Amino acid sequence: MSTLEIAQFKHISAIHNRDFNGLPISSTSTAVNLTGSWKFFRPKMAEKGSPCQSACPLRIPIAGYLRQLAEQNPAAALETLREINPLPAVTGRVCPHFCEAACNRLEFDEAVKIGDLERWLGDFGLDRPHRFAPAPETDLKVAVVGAGPAGLAAAVFLARRGVAVEIFERGQEAGGLLASAIPAYRLPRDILRNELDNLLSSYPAITLHCDRNIDPGELTALAKEFAAIILATGLPESIIPAAWQDNPRVIGALKLLATINRGMEIEGDRFTVVGGGNAALDAARSLLRRGKKVEIVYRRTLAEMPAYEEEKEQARAEGITIHQETVVGGLENRGENLQLTLCRAQKENGGIVAGEVLRREDCDILVVAIGQQAADGYLQAKLPETILRAGDFAHGAATVAEALASGRKAAAQVWSRLNDCPVPSETGEPLGIADFTRVHPDYFHPRPAVRPNLLPARERRAGFAEIRTGLSPAETCREAERCFSCGTCTTCGICWFFCPEVAIAIAPDAGSDNGKVLFDYDHCKGCGQCAAICPRGVIEMEEDL
Amino acid sequence: MQQEAILLGSEAVAHGVRLCRPEVISAYPITPQTHIIETLSEMVDDGELTSRFIKVESEMSAIAAVLGAVSAGSRSFTASSSQGLAMMHELLHWYAGARLPLVLVNANRALGAPWNIWSDQSDSFSQRDTGWLQIYCETSQEALDTIIIAYRASELLMLPIMVMIDGFILSHTMERLLVPDQEMVDDFLPPYQAPYKLDPDKPLTFGAAAQPDLFYELKKTMSATMLEAGPLLKECERSFAAIFDRAYEPVIHCPEGDEKADTALICCGATTGTAREAVKRLRQENIAIDLFKMRLLRPFPQTELIAALEGKKRIIILNRALSYGVGGTLSQELRAALYNLDRRPVINDVIISLGGREVFPETIMDIVKRRKELSPTASNWL
């Protein structure tokens, strides 16, 4: 058999001995051909805030720390989180998590369980001291009145700037309402104490004086000793209608909760709680756990109750009766008993008054949970303008996250005032929000959220054990992976893959902002594919001037 | 050794491709070509073929995938038909201009609208200016053999070759044929060695912008290569015949025809088989007709055609592709080629079939009998 030899075809002039001179191939580089000069638009990295971050009173960079959690780097995630939120083990449990209600994933399958992840990370950090960039020490001294979340946050953010802070707390321990009012089944005592101890020992610049009440009258003297004073005295007293104030069988919810939280005995067996907020539910559920008979009277409907939905649901599951649209029209002390006159709630002149009498009922104690107010003395006190307020005392009753944010803001304002500089910000300027229209769900897979176990109602009633179980490390990692990282570049490389000009380089270690994706503007023709496909809405096109 | 087998035309093509050991196959299914790549994908799945089979979402991607694969130095294969081939159009130009070898099998089928899946050569005829060699096959055996020849020629020329089979008439019809042994084919077809290829260690620029002067020169070279592709292809066909004992030429004279006849029929593709029968029967009726088959359309075998048709007074061309406003596409090609003859024959342009309209021996016999009534200028429709 003969085979063809290439040499036989030498007569083909176009192919010079397999030299192929006629092929459109060049050994020169195209680098000289700067096709990027053709473009009218250019891509840019524009990292954005996520909806969860913008919904968070503290503006925690949630996408950032969830990413670190997903990458199995909890230590880094903790740093990121605590830089903004000094009490994550607390907020992970008691915050209503506005973030979850804003999560883009809600429009895809279900929200990321940010609260449970924050809690896990907070617990992870209980025995890890806060780390913060050391600031040059100053000779500034600031007084903070009240060691609740707002006061503690103010102290922490001042201490980080090298300011010496003295906190004056009228109670026996730090924590404010966290310690006195939030029941252990929502926030276990040891978790709270560990987190507070860890915080205080991490910042030697903070000195805490407990059992030290500051009367408004003392403030003038204090102002001479300290460069600034931040008042974070909170709203520690329950509001009680004047007619009931001297009745020994009437007690404010906050006082009752403080007694229970201190482990003290409660007299009486049958309790009626008036109110519909979290304090009312906390009081009723705590009493139930102490083996008391308890029911709630609320003047509006269940749906209108301002308490968190989860709390309402759990209270009902535990068997607490809630009388809706009912008011206590009158009460009468009868020997050992208190007789309540329960009336139908009736709307009148924009308010609610007692209507027809429904029934009369006996109870031992009436617990009032219809609102909070400032401590005696601070109620009507006229305070010098140089004194800053923070927390509930400044903005009215709100969440722990709001109190922390308020404390942080007060610290920044004090710093600004003392240094005559602009108000500093830990969270930076918001860059716009990567809402659901900016993310590309095509790049993500539906996956159900983690379901933390809840202690069954029967077991819950038996004591103060924490209701919600924590996540395992594996669950934490899997749940954190569900985060879209809206508005944050994860160096996923989709833009690199789609770029038809090979004009994108990915540099995962290049830092947080515009360094992670590098555009070769000499060759980018501005087609915009990278911006169109960016799964997290980071890349944007701008006019190339 | 060559194994006797009864195979569908599409299977014969797949075996031809298998014997050439392509490293990459990429195609998108389209009737009547689908059987080809189905058979190949099964061969890959069974391990009979070690090619990388790239699934794609369109013919445009199929041709782009093999363009990349061949640029990187791999022998590759793709197949298509009709709308699919039309969808490749832009890259067919690019492919030839890039001077890369490839064998593409096209199962001839009509282009819509209206929808029609049957045999019609308009799809490949309308790609004749893309710089590809075009070979039309009459039988499945010819198709199998041509694929092997085409890889050899394509890699020597650094130009792509399109091999045509008639949709359904060949693709979906069984035929008794010989399948060569791998060893024989390996002797005939050495592995592809790319003179230049994509290689990050030796960076080169492929098909980058050429200034007008260089562009002109490159196209001149390509045109010269195309003109000399005819002799090279003939060399390959001769070598093939020496090994496999089956001979092919750019223009084939069919022995059923009468060489002395002054009228000749010219066909392209599987119609030739029907014409052979018609010519045989006409001879029984004492009507002498000669018969030729156009195997090669690009490069156009001008010399061979003039030599074959020298002295004929009438040429009847059976067209299965149409250039609207002119007439049968094959007729136009022949008219241009025969213009240089000293004594030009009468040329009858017959549109014998479009969209799979059946051609029977009687259809052709009737045309021949009415040959004096046929228009020498306008197209003749049935």
Description:
The complex is a heterodimer of chains A (545) and B (382). Chain A is α/β, with parallel strands linked by helices. In chain A, 30% of the residues lie in helices and 18% in strands. Chain A has a five-stranded parallel sheet with strand order 5-4-3-6-17, sandwiched between helices. Chain A has a five-stranded parallel sheet with strand order 8-15-9-10-11. In chain A, helix 2 crosses helix 17 (473-481). The longest helix of chain A is centred in the C-terminal third of the chain and has 20 residues, at 400-419. Chain A is globular. Chain B has helices at residues 9-19, 34-46, 59-71, 82-97, 122-125, 140-157, 182-188, 212-244, 271-284, 302-309, 329-338, 361-369; strands at 2-8, 24-27, 52-55, 76-80, 102-108, 133-136, 160-166, 174-180, 205-206, 251-253, 263-267, 290-294, 296-298, 314-319, 322-323, 327-328, 346-351, 380-381. Chain B is of the alpha/beta class. Chain B is built from twelve helices and 18 strands. The longest helix of chain B has 33 residues, at 212-244. Helix content of chain B is 41%, strand content 21%. Chain B has two domains: 2-244, Rossmann fold; 252-381, 3-Layer(aba) Sandwich (Rossmann fold). Chain B is globular, with a radius of gyration of 21 Å. In chain B, helix 1 packs across helix 2, helix 3 (59-71) packs parallel to helix 4 (82-97) and helix 6 (140-157) crosses helix 8.
What structural keywords apply?
heterodimer; A: 545 residues; alpha/beta; 19 helices; globular; disordered N terminus; B: 382 residues; Rossmann fold; 2 domains; 6-stranded mixed β-sheet; 21% strand
Radius of gyration of chain A: 31 Å
Number of helices of chain A: 19
Q: Round the Cα radius of gyration of chain B to an integer and report it.
A: 21 Å
Which protein chains make the most extensive interface, counting residues with beta carbons within 8 Å of the other chain's beta carbons?
A: A-B, 26 and 34 residues
Strand content of chain B: 15-25%
What quaternary form is this? Answer: heterodimer
The succession of helices and strands of chain B, N to C, reads: EHEHEHEHEHEHEEHEHEEHEEHEEEHEHE
Mean pLDDT of chain A: 90
CATH superfamily annotation of the largest domain in chain B: Thiamin diphosphate (ThDP)-binding fold, Pyr/PP domains
Q: Based on DSSP secondary structure assignment, what is the total number of beta strands of chain A?
A: 20
